[in-house]
Design a protein that fits this description.
The complex is a heterotrimer of chains A (223), B (393) and C (318). Helix content of chain A is 33%, strand content 24%. Chain A has 223 residues and is of the alpha/beta class. In chain A, helix 3 packs parallel to helix 5. Chain C is 46% helix and 12% strand. The chains are: A alpha/beta (223), B alpha+beta (393), C alpha/beta (318). Chains in contact: A-B, B-C. At the B-C interface, helix 1, helix 2, helix 4, strand 3 and strand 12 of B face helix 1, helix 3, helix 4, strand 6 and helix 8 of C.
Amino acid sequence: MIQMQQLRFGYPQSQFRLNIPDLIIKEAEKVAVIGPSGCGKTTLLNLISGILIPDQGTLNSCGINLKTLNDSQRRAYRISRIGFVFQEFELIDYLNVHENILLPYFINGILHLDQCVQDRARELAASMQIDQYFQARIDQISQGERQRVAICRALLPQPQILLADEPTGNLDPANKRLIRDLLIEHTARTKATLIMVTHDDRLLDQFERTIDIERFHEVVETA
Amino acid sequence: MNGILRLTFRYLAYNRLKTVILILCVSLALLLPVLLQFGVAQFEQDLLARARATPLVAGAKGSRFDLALQSMYFSRAELEPTTMQAVETIQETGYALPIPLSLRFTAQGAPIVGTTLDYFDFRKLVVAEGTGLRRLGDCVIGADIAQKQQLKPGDRLMSDPLNVFDLSGNYPLKMRVVGILGKAGSPDDNAVFVDLKTEWIISGIGHGHQTVDSETSKDLLLKRDGQRVVANAAVPQFNEVTDENLASFHFHGQAETFPISSILLVPSNEKSEVLLLGIYDAKNATLQLIRPTEIVKELLQMVFRVKQLFDMNTLLVSVSVGLLLALIFLLSLRLRKRERQTMFQLGCSRSTIWKLQLSEIIFILGTSLIIVLGMAAVFRVYAYQMMRFLFIE
Amino acid sequence: MKKPVYLFLVLFSVAQLLSCQQKTQLENNPTSEDQTPLVVVVNYPLEFIVESIAGPAVKVLNPVPADADPETWFPDDAMIQTIQQADLIVTNGADFSDWVKKLSLPRSKVLRTSLSLKEALITVPDFEVHSHGSGDAHSHAGTVSFFWLDPRLMTRQANAIAQRLALLLPRQQEEITANLKKLEDSLEPLNQKLDQLRTSYPGLQWFSQRPVYQYLTRRTDWKVFHLHWKKKTEPDDPVWENLIAMQEQHKVPLMLWEYQPEDKQVKALQQRGVASFVLNPLTVKPSQGNYLTEMQRQLDQLEEFLKQHTNLSKSKEN
């Protein structure tokens, strides 16, 4: 599903370097990414999602060499193949729960909002037990419920890869597990690849593999 | 609904106070210049149309503006009257059809226009209800005054006394409304038309009173000389012309000496017009002959000068409102940075972000514009009266 | 990005609406369906003139019924409308007919024949003197309106009418000129008769009931005293006293009547040495003949009457 070879990436004017000689994540694999802060966990997700472009090496995802895509192709790839779940949920405060779930369909013409999508949104919400809040405003629901809305939003376009950047960081222990389980359960159901960044070792037990990003991280001395 | 529109509307509705304030702010900035533009354009159009339909106006020497505006718009002006002799003189030249106008009185505040039947043909006025003027005491009223005063043919309309303290001159005349004119979209809609002779009755030049004879009114009789009778001052005058008392109405003096306010002239052709203008161009001429289009153009120059000041102001206000709006949108952009970032990460297309911002601006500007145009449409109805009030009355 | 398009459409249509003129187009009144122009006249002499000049080219309407007095008659609403829509309204002027003064008429279509003889008009103090309000007593002065009794003035009236008819009927111009000439010629015998009367009976003095005959007596150089007798009213004592006073002062032997007076009035006048003669000014169409024949007949009778009365007075003097 995701293949990285001799991949090198660095931010301009920064000592941070990511150097991945070889990394393969298989289809439907549930991977946890760990490592201390600032060692490139989010950078890895951004590379996989096409937000960042590697300086060197190859990065194939879903059979596509991301380096060959232009900006709008990368956006199209992202919206159709990638689902994103953030630590801060990043829900839109002026939309209700329902509309937040449908957001990907509002912002890129590649996705077509039809009855089928609407039905799926409702099913997803029901499966996450937030369907009773469908018309509620974001500030009217709890943190855990908000993250469930964010997961619904990420899953609705049926992505092949679900990237979760510390999705449990702002949640209480019970919700942490619940969210992790929901992510694993739903990606298992859709046979999607799950890559979840976490700091919490207690959550790692349900993952098939753990990647410590620390080993790919290097600091270069700049002149 | 289109996703961007949905997001825009949701955003504007969520921040409704900000939206309303912005719309109000833009509307208010646009309102004055737009209203002024509409008002002036309408005023110009109406004024020029009326002036073009009024080739020449004659009247006693004095203010040319007053003469033109009073003759076209029946506005109140203290014009020196001229006499019917002037009408006869013009008629005798054969160069133009003179249409006399007498404009001294009002009825329920509306101008009473004493004229002849030719006026109706000249202005192409049609009677929508009832009939045209038939006899002394009849009046035909414009569509607006009919509506305002709820008058219909058969009703009576009293002329207003010229001066409450005037004991000697005119008495209010109860006029018979015989017809309502169709809407003409001109000052004719708000005028009460009477025959010139009826106007003279209102002004006291003509009157009707009980027949004085020795049998019926001994107490009124002062002197008898053959069949000549001299009656005392108490002969009661009629304040209304009825079929019964019509015969008793009469005028004192020669019709040629009777006063009129001005004369509309319909020249037979261009040459006649030039010849007429030549005749009255002389220094010793008692009348002045004017081309209303020239007067109106002069008046419009005045209006445009005032408007220029407003336009300057508008420019400054527009710039400051523009800058203010730019600031607000910049702040809004900054506030929504995180939202944009999220959308970017989710894979939103590049144009979407800009479309979102743009549709918000367009919505605010568009709504303001609709409000302003809506108000302008309402204003249009009153623009004419307002401009008249400002520049003519 | 559909919304801005809608917005523009809305704004555009609003602007369109605003720029539209709401003024309704007023249709011009169609000209009368009947092609023959309608000429309204106020009395029989004018009717006679118009008919003589225009012939069948116009429809002449004398709206006054045969039994009505054209001076005081007033039209009903239907007739008012007909008159107002006429192509030409020939009025006598000098306040001859009451309705002309009280009706609303299109000035452009009114021909006032008195305007053509302004300097020849005769003004007399009127019948009634009164005052009202705070004003002093005043009289209603008036111009004598029976111009046609002087055939020369009638010719001038005819000329004015012919000029106006020529404008109304540009194609019949020649015919109008010819007819006018014919009319002028036919009035000549009346002129001659009046000249003859002036030479034969110089300086006669007459009473008349009302100011009617001034133009005729000016032609014949006679003097006329009007008595201000109301038409068809029995003169009472003060009226007679007035007559006697004038009789003593001026020794007036003759009186002209517009209509046949009652026998007792004729006798009463006779007793006071006043002989009556009826000279109908023909404001109404005569039952027989036309204006010319009737006026000629009346003037012949007048000559006969004068012959008798002057002989009588001469024999009295002898």
